[in-house]
């Protein structure tokens, strides 16, 4: 066949990429709108799933080591579950007496504290009434000096009042305002009970979810990879491995911090309140340590209430002791327990807490700090490696210093 007779056959360009139709974007927008509208119903489910994943990843290294000895995951999971239930039962039994005594002590101290609080409020109200009378007298004197006729008319009215004037409503006092505030707090008991029931349901769901997850986690993680395109499996595996290393380290450091803070509070409060109340305060401080940055502040409330019942300088000493614990935590305990690579910026954690509480409720604070770290890992593996492949942390720090008009030679 003559080469001149051959016509130019274009090379096979492969499957053409057709632009996505308008219907696809409409369906995507409708799905996003439906998700937003139903998020209030889906948030407990999403929170439960996140907690199950985080707790399972935190406990998985222990199960994996026990699995090497037992040859499976079911026996280690059963042993750990039985140990956890037994520990919680023993702790509740040991704390029932001290907590009951503490509640009785606080309830006995509240009336005395309320009586002492009313005295300065009554004094302030009486001083306000005297000041108002004095001010009215000064106003009458000024009116008499400026317009004597008006002053005489006010002193001797010509026409009697045919309709009795309504007595002026008493201005709300400080005590009545405080009582209204307490009544409002008690009136919201129904909402608190509903939220408590919802939290209990989430915790029970998470408990059983973690148990079944630890028994056989591979189908769940396999489903996660099944939702990714095949070309992204390598990158997804790297992200999963980094998260799997971070979560156990973070959980271990958090547990050690809880134990340390609880022990410190117990030792400091023992000489002031005795062993029973100090034990309750130590356990309260340990549990609230899970809430980053704000938990230690909340843990001072029951201690201050107990201190107010004792009177004298006790509230001041208790406040100083909690400030010392907070300073020791921020400067010694957290830097020692948390590695530098696990440190999270306080502003990022606080905003994450606000978002998680708004999205998931009170229990959202439990996933705030891990979510910040997970977002940071995903950002480094996906965004920075594709968009900023040659930019290092030192380059970003240098740009931040220039933006803040700081000298590059200044220390951090």
What's this, in brief?
The chain is an all-alpha fold.
Poorly predicted tracts of residues: 4-10, 162-172
Q: What is the average of the pLDDT values? A: 76
Q: With helices defined by DSSP (H or I, 4 residues minimum), what is the helix count?
A: 15
Distance between the termini: 78 Å
Class by alpha and beta content: mainly alpha
State the oligomer.
single chain
Main sheet record: none
Percentage of residues in DSSP E strands: under 5%
Helix % is over 70%
**What is the global morphology?**
extended
Keywords: Membrane, Transmembrane, Transmembrane helix
Transmembrane segments: 21-39, 45-63, 75-96, 189-214, 249-270, 290-309, 316-338, 350-378
Family: Belongs to the autoinducer-2 exporter (AI-2E) (TC 2.A.86) family.
InterPro entries: AI-2E-like (IPR002549)
Notes on the structure:
The structure is a single chain. The protein has helices at residues 22-37, 39-70, 74-146, 148-155, 174-187, 189-215, 218-226, 233-273, 275-288, 295-298, 300-310, 314-337, 346-360, 368-387, 393-403. By secondary structure, the protein is mainly α. Among the domains are: 229-343, no CATH class; 345-412, no CATH class. α13 (346-360) crosses α14. Residues 4-10 and 162-172 have low confidence and may be disordered. Keywords: Membrane, Transmembrane, Transmembrane helix. InterPro entries: AI-2E-like. It is found in: Membrane.
């Amino acid at each position: 066949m003559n080469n001149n007779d051959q016509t130019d056959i274009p090379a096979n360009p492969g499957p053409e990429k057709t632009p996505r139709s308008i219907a696809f974007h409409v369906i995507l927008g409708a799905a996003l709108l439906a998700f937003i509208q139903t998020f209030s119903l889906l948030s407990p489910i999403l929170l439960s799933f996140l907690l199950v994943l985080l707790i399972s990843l935190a406990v998985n290294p222990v199960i994996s080591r026990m699995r090497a000895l037992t040859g499976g995951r079911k026996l280690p999971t059963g042993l750990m579950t039985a140990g956890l239930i037994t520990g919680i039962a023993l702790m509740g039994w040991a704390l029932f007496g001290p907590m009951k005594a503490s509640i009785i002590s606080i309830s006995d101290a509240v009336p005395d504290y309320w009586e002492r609080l009313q005295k300065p409020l009554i004094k302030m109200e009486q001083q306000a009434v005297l000041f108002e009378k004095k001010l009215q007298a000064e106003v009458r004197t000024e009116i008499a000096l400026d317009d004597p006729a008006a002053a005489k008319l006010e002193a001797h009215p010509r026409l009697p009042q045919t309709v009795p004037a309504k007595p002026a409503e008493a201005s709300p006092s400080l005590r009545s305002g405080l009582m209204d505030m307490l009544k409002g707090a008690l009136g919201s008991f129904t909402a608190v009970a509903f939220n408590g029931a919802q939290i209990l349901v989430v915790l029970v769901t998470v408990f059983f979810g973690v148990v079944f997850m630890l028994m056989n986690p591979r189908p769940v993680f396999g489903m996660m990879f099944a939702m990714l395109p095949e070309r992204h499996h390598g990158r997804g595996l790297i992200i999963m491995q980094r998260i799997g290393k971070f979560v156990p380290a973070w959980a271990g450091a958090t547990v050690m911090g809880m134990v340390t803070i609880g022990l410190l509070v117990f030792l400091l409060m023992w000489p002031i309140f005795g062993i029973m109340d100090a034990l309750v305060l130590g356990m309260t401080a340990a549990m609230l340590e899970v809430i980053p940055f704000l938990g230690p502040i909340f843990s001072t409330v029951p201690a201050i209430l107990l201190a107010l019942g004792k009177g004298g300088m006790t509230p001041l000493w208790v406040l100083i002791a909690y400030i010392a614990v907070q300073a020791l935590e921020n400067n010694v305990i957290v830097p020692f327990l948390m590695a530098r690579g696990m440190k999270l910026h306080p502003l990022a954690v606080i905003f994450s807490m606000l978002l998680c509480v708004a999205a998931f409720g009170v229990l959202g604070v439990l996933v705030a700090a891990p979510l910040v770290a997970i977002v940071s890992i995903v950002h480094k593996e996906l965004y920075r490696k594709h968009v900023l492949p040659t930019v290092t942390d030192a380059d970003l720090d240098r740009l931040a210093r220039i933006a803040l008009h700081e000298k590059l030679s200044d220390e951090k």
